[in-house]
Amino acid sequence: MQIVGVTTQHEVYIASKVHKFRMNEMLVIEDESLYQPKGEVVETFSYNRYIPMGFDKGIADDQVLKTLEQIGYDIGADDIHLAKVRLFEEAVQPIQTGATVRHPHFNEISSLLVKTTPAEGLVLGEVKSTDFIEPTLPESLKELMHVQDHDEIRPQKGIPFIFDIRAMQQYPHIGVFGGSGSGKSFGLRVMLEEIMKLQIPSLVFDPHFEMNFASQADDLPSAKTYTDRYSVVQIGKEVGVDFSALSTRDVERLLSAAGSLTESMINVIQTVHKRKDSYQSFSDRIANLAEAIELGKQKVEAMLHDGGMTRDEINRFSTFRKLLDQYGSLPLASIKGIQWRVNRLHQAGLFQQNIRAIEQGIQAGKLVVIQGAVWLLQVFSSYVIGALYGKRRSFRDAKLQQKQGDFFPPFIVVTDEAHNFAPKGFDAPAKSVLKEIAQEGRKYGVFLIFATQRPTLLDETITAQLNSKFVFRTVRGTDIQTIKEETDLTHDEGKRLPYLRSGDVFVSSAIMGRTMAVRIRLAHSASPHALNPFDELKKMKEQDSEQVLRALDAYLPLAEMSIMNQLTNLNKEAQKNWDVAEWKQELERLSEDGLLKKQKTPFATLYTRP
Ligand SMILES: Nc1ncnc2c1ncn2[C@@H]1O[C@H](COP(=O)(O)OP(=O)(O)OP(=O)(O)O)[C@@H](O)[C@H]1O
């Protein structure tokens, strides 16, 4: 391999007759006077006698052609491989044309690529095109993972990409961007596995119900299990909001998530909500007030003067009167609006539990996955993040003031669909607390991992605070533009974004100091959605046929006209509720699928085992 053409201080062309260059391949230029500059391939081209140079010059210019001829290439006849290489550090003077080029030894580039050990960092994947370095890779960095390359699963060959999570203290927060099917969720899963490995307490909001680590990945030798390292809770089942602990401002925020609030509705909440109100006391007060206003003061007074009512009725109407005296001037429509919103949250189970299960999980160093519908997660996240961040802050602040405080650990907040939690341009329940963490969380040891398909829709103050960005395949022009503005991806890398393979990612991180191309490793666990929906249909059909055949077994051979007599038994055993026509259809289907044999005689149609 040799340098050809005119070189600059930061870019050179390299040619070879035998070596086919690969994108992101690392190379060392033998130039003692410049301290062996190193760089990586950013563009490649191959010529052979079928596509001779000059016919389509591609990346080569006249200067390149001239040098090639001078150093003995037969242009138009030889195979020639060319690469454009960008130097990692600008050279003090242009590089000598003709200088030889080779692959680096691990020690020559280790400081650029490896910032921590596998035991202390997140082992997320393999740095692309580094398999040339395998012979010099130290044992401690080998055999850390398996990688899927095209259809083949293979052990790690190149340099591992180990994210130095400890450096988040200085460069906090991670963004994970990528379009549908780009491998973003898969990458997030690998990140979470590594976080569990290190037992870092984390709060994961999971709108897709996919972050479960119970099932192991198929085909992966020695997949790790994470059983004791995480817990999954659902809003309305294991966790919820303790209504009586909410301030009036919290109630406003929660209710606004169930449906936007008008000024007048906010006024209703501020007037009617009392400190320590339980869900019951607040919703009763609202319901009674609505009913009282609907009846009107006159009618309520008349009922109370009328007499002849039971004690309960007297109590009820006295309550109405009191409420009318206190709040009678509030508009009925706004009160009803609040009533509807409180009801909606209650129906979703939000007020049935508290967040103790989450706090315990975090205290125990676990990854706590919180599942629920997006809108409900938005409400709940604002409450739970606010509460836990508050605890962590109080503990740290107390410590700074040398006071005693209950220990609360540092933790990470992880969410997919992050643009729903902190949207650009409009408000969302959790946005203010997330912004605060983006700006101040570092001081308290609270960090964000934000994944989204739409970085353009994410609040820009937060995007700017994400010091490490993992960029998967992105097709949408506006998102590519945002990514280019927010990372140090070069123009060439930006152009490659729509064509990245699922699982390939550019990591642009202040921690690494430069963009790296990485193949994410195979996950040890599998997503519950990993089953192809069409395989799922097939499996369901097979299971169903099996069940029906088992029920039929005792009655075979079965004549079509006997179905009527056996209908109750058949339905019971097959757990169906079919009539005779439906059973006939099913028998026909099973015989078409070859699972039964259909015989027609002049007297009857018979079904038997094939
Ligand atoms: N690193 C990887 N190695 C092997 N296969 C991968 C890798 N990453 C992704 N894949 C494959 O690509 C598919 C799509 O990935 P994934 O579901 O993570 O996409 P996504 O970007 O999260 O899409 P969506 O946002 O629609 O969920 C996965 O089913 C997985 O099989």
TrEMBL record:
Keyword ATP-binding among record annotations? yes
**InterPro entries registered for this protein in UniProt:** FtsK_dom (IPR002543), HerA-like (IPR008571), HerA_central (IPR002789), P-loop_NTPase (IPR027417)
Q: Which Pfam families would you find in this protein's record?
A: DUF87 (PF01935)
Summarize where ATP binds, as residue positions: G178, G179, S180, G181, S182, G183, K184, S185
Return one GO MF term: DNA binding
**Keyword set for this entry?**
ATP-binding, Nucleotide-binding
Superkingdom is: Bacteria
Query: Where does the FtsK domain lie?
Result: 158-481
Q: Which PANTHER family match?
A: HELICASE HERA CENTRAL DOMAIN-CONTAINING PROTEIN, HELICASE MJ1565-RELATED
Designated name of the protein: AAA-like domain protein
- Which organism does this record belong to? Halalkalibacter krulwichiae
